[in-house]
Amino acid sequence: TRGQLLNDDQYYKLIEENGDEFDARMGAEAIYELLRSINIPLEVKQIREDIGKVNSDTKIKKYSKRLKVLESLYDSGNRPEWMILTVLPVLPPELRPLVHLEGGRFATSDLNDLYRRVINRNNRLRRLLDLAAPDIIVRNEKRMLQEAVDALLDNGRRGRAITGTNKRPLKSLADMIKGKQGRFRQNLLGKRVDYSGRSVIVVGPTLRLHQCGLPKRMALELFKPFILSKLQKYGIANTIKAAKKMIERSAPEVWDILEEVIREHPVLLNRAPTLHRLGIQAFEPILIEGKAIQLHPLVCTAFNADFDGDQMAVHIPLSLEAQLEARALMMSSNNILSPANGEPIIVPTQDVILGLYYMTRERINARGEGMILANLDEVQRAYETGHLELQAKIKVRISEVEITPTGERNPPKTTIQDTTTGRALMWRIVPEGIPFQLINQNMTKKQVSNLVNTCYRKLGLKATAIFADQLMYLGFRQSTRAGISIGVNDMEIPETKVSILEKAEAEVQEIQQQYTSGILTDGERYNRVVDIWTRTGNNVAKAMMEKISKIELQDRHGQMIQQSSFNSIHMMADSGARGSAAQIRQLAGMRGLMAKPDGTIIETPITANFREGLNVNQYFISTHGARKGLADTALKTANSGYLTRRLVDVAQDMVVHELDCGTEDGLLITAIVEDDKIVEHLQDRILGRVAAATIYYPGTDDALCPAGTLLDETWANRIEQEGVDQVLVRSAITCNSRIGVCAKCYGRDLARGHLVNYGEAVGVIAAQSIGEPGTQLTMRTFHVGGAASRSAANDKIENKKTGTLKFHDIKTVQNTKGKLITVSRTGELIITDSIGRERERYKVPYGATLNYKDGDAIEAGKTIATWDPHTRPVIAEVAGILRFAEFVEGMSVQSQVDDLTGMSSLVVLDPKQRPAGGKDLRPTVKLETQTGEDINIPGTSVPAHYVLITKSVVNLTDGAKIQVGDIVARMPLETTKTRDITGGLPRVADLFEARKPKEPAILAEASGNISFGKETKGKQRLLITNSDGEIQEILIPKWRHVNLFDGDYVKKGEIISDGELNPSDVLRLKGISALSEYLIKEIQNVYRTQGVRINDKHIEVIIRQMLRKVEVDKPGDSKHLCGEQVERMAVLRENIEL
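Request: output the structure for the sequence above.
Response:
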């Protein structure tokens, strides 16, 4: 047939049989002929007819691919045979130079070699054809020619890469274009630019926020053309040449003109790597002596700069428009808020925080304690004359001005406040409109950040920039005056350390003995030892923190009083300036357990700390983990950069295109509650969003806030105060804009604090905000077990706050003692406050005993539920007589006698360990009436049968009487194998790529009642029968543990077998909002554990791009095919048109 591939034997045979009317060729010439004979319109018509007739998926896929190519060719008016090159274009010689080296050798571009091979082989082939050489030789030459051309276009794409003289693969045309060193990324996107310079940066503590120090020589060179034109304009120099001469000998007039040129002309400073848009900012240059650029300390956070030798580049915006943009958009004083989370990024750190903290501390018995002063000037005088110490407690008259949310000033209120000298002095620089409370406390980093934030929200940009500068000057001055330093004596080692360690050693000895006498397995021993040392480390740390952070002394009334200590190290950590409890613990407590590079924990801890010094063994153990850390950091940077690039690639066309798309859809936002604490309040999550529906006062029909309102701080606060639990807000995911996203769905521009402007590139900002903290995330996979996640097993729920108990999705039965036992798996207990707001939320496992009922009022600190953490019970939901089915001693079950209690119990055997006859037995316990009839589970028509999994233990005997809520069998939890939790960067990448996890959770494909069908080899068959009697079948591998029993009711999308969720399953079964909720929650968890805050809307923007394509299910009258992947918006548009 035409287009069939032949091997040698077939070819010769056919030539013998058919002679001349048979034509077979090799290589591209054959394909050229075949392509030339295609009649496109006819083919398209033919395929459209055929596609309706076939049923198999693969054929439809194949046809639709072919159709897509043909239609594209037809629409563009191209012919398919034009895809084949018959003439090879040659690069101009200047672009592939040949250079003469000394010693008579030549250096040449690789392309010349590649072209030479093509030419040689082509000429040889022509000669062979002229000579009518044997077929086999010609064919070989043709193949070699094809290879030479392939290598020229893309070397190494097929077969081995062709190498030059030095064993290095030659650089082909494709290689010159692609990759980081290629034409695009190296030369087109990454040009070197004129009017730029770079130098080392040093700190400029006297600069204002919008200034930077520029070395004179640098400025002279950068602004040269400006100076030349001015020199000529003023007639100081007659010709350009004369002007150049003047600059070279740096005449005094030149400096005057430089000053004039530089005034009001901003320059751009950039620090590589530019991970987000704050990596390039504009400043006004101040001319300085020396050769280093001076940088304002407060912008270091945004640039991620420090002064250990970092370099920065300076660029000059030349045109008037560029200068205007630099001034209006890029000026450092205009970029006070971070685009990632909307919080100030111009916040004092380190020395400044230490100074502010030191001046706002209280010290008992300081000079001047108890003085009462008339005003701030009096405080200043008393302090300067030495009558008052900085930390003395005093009373002062303070006048505050309140500014209402609408911006009106109320007249000043004067009160006498209990405060300290330092706080009163600090109050002098605080602008009007900020309450004194914010300063009348120990100013830690958090408090200072809060102060700057409040200032921005109340007083706007200009006041904040001025205030931030003032804070910085004050902080530096006080930090210098305080004279805080570190000495080895500041690392105070607690006296109790020795005894704590001795106790731990004794416990470890005991466990070691239990292991040698065979009571414990090696794994248990290891886990317990690690547990002991983790606890010991924490105890030593606690004792050390007690000692280092508190000091007892007598106040002036003679009473013993505890005050926070003035230990330098403690102050640095407590203020948030530098260091953390974990680091102090290594200095003065004990270093504790170390990990090997593979993440497992070495069970011998380092009991020494850095003050005592490490011995050789301890030092060696330390290096183990430390080296892994360094290797990880290098890896992390590359991976993080790659993630950012992929995110930008997918999101770059997301631009704000219209004000309002008019959708009424949105996401339902609630507070994030984990166990007993609210991780993120509702007001923080809805801030800066637009309400999608009217928000009502809880429990009434009165509107609190109309739909379409941008929820600013005032609104968000009010909604939280009124006790609203959930708010429907507009989201990028549900936006209906054809291109990009609309302003209302996006909400507030986080870096500017108002509704987002037209044309804002929200996609790129989202990608940068998610990618920039990437280097702070970890790279490792956590192993469950060991001290990585060692916390004592949970076996009860205690509430932290007083409130009302609500059951959510909980099914219970009442046992003979009147207690409720849960028989649901996904249930949650919720504690609400007096106005019905959710305050705590707890997951309740199956088989937990509840001490309270739904709707009970509960005091704080009560135990609501208890359960056995080590086993999973099977609870009888009805009373009856117990019957065993398929229990065969030695085949499916085995009896065991407990050494301690002497009771015998039956254990279900693992199918792998059973003899041949027992492989298919499924030990089941049934509940029957006296007469032997099945009893149904209440509310269903399903008999109460419980199929037992491997290693389940039954303590009862056949025929025992069972009451409701009794435990029929127990399953040990040890059997669930510890799976690795992927953490950090790889986890984020997996979620954004929506990769399928290794062992995904199995979800219910429909709602209905569960039953088990006949098992197949290696699989168990699970049937779900819905209310209409339709049956869905799911095959589950036998080793997967199913969380449900016969007759349980499941909802569509409920988890049947535990594991990581597969995002595409969630989307298919539960819809877009469930998917986005899952992805946002998981991604935020990774960032939250590292203490990084990112606004949800950035993640939503990326999720919108992930859901951009849809698969056509029913083509209808459109020209799309079944199974074709199309843009979602295109489908919606076509549906409107059709």
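The CA atoms of residues 796 and 940 lie 31 Å apart.
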